[in-house]
């Protein structure tokens, strides 16, 4: 079957066309689509192929075997790894064909058709190849209402909570353990920044941060996230404390501005 224009003339096009035809010919497969950077139109030479299919329940072993047969026609598989997924109706295997670029992996995700799910519009990007049962639906996420005064108070409390955990392990010479709590604090601040600028992706952490966050926030995150030893962590703690204070002031201005707009 013919692929959408966006998926033609790429390293994966022949393989994708073969897998698409295989799945389309099997009426037990209800939908097949592409996710990831390719679907977002942001792919480059490092992008992998992220595939999803909705199938009859308990068909995953058979479908993986059929996909593997297609891939083996292109060469030996030096990666054939079933990823551990906590969801009982989602199955994910990563493949790589020997002799191709190490970045050209093929992620095959299968989900049972009984799984009820909804894509978040503007968050979950995908390119549909076929959907014979209207499996994939999008819903615009509801706008998040954030109490920023309470949020920033919790940020300050979280800093106060983790600071002694970091310092006592630094003072004991246990830098690996100190790094655990230090990273918790960095991740909490990233979540707070995302809540302000990308609220629909508040749990994405560092993922997509280079194209979604402000340069000044990225500079701060990189400055505190990359540490090499005690002195870097101590400096990072001070920078995070300063950041929280400045961010708190920024949010006060943001709240006043919003209140003024509401009154107007």
- Quickly count the domains: 2
Which regions have little confidence, pLDDT < 50, spanning 5+ residues? none
DSSP E strands, number: 8
Q: Structural class of the helix and strand makeup?
A: alpha/beta
Terminal CA distance = 55 Å
Give the helix proportion (percent range). Answer: 40-55%
Taken from the alpha-carbon principal axes, the silhouette is elongated
Q: What is the rounded Rg?
A: 23 Å
Strand order of the largest sheet: 3-4-5-2-1-7
Question: Taking all residues together, what is the mean pLDDT?
Answer: 93
Oligomer: single chain
CATH architecture classification of the largest domain: 2-Layer Sandwich
Present the secondary structure layout.
Blueprint: H1 13-24, E1 29-35, H2 36-40, E2 49-55, H3 60-72, E3 77-83, E4 90-97, E5 106-112, E6 119-120, E7 127-131, E8 138-139, H4 148-171, H5 175-197, H6 209-212, H7 215-225, H8 230-263
Parallel strand pairs: 2-5, 6-8
Antiparallel strand pairs: 1-2, 1-7, 3-4, 4-5
Describe the protein.
There is one protein chain. With 264 residues, the protein is of the alpha/beta class. Helix content is 48%, strand content 17%. It contains 8 helices and 8 strands. Helix 1 (13-24) runs antiparallel to helix 3 (60-72), helix 5 runs parallel beside helix 8 (230-263) and helix 7 (215-225) runs antiparallel to helix 8 (230-263). The longest helix is centred in the C-terminal third of the chain and has 34 residues, at 230-263. The radius of gyration is 23 Å and the shape is elongated.
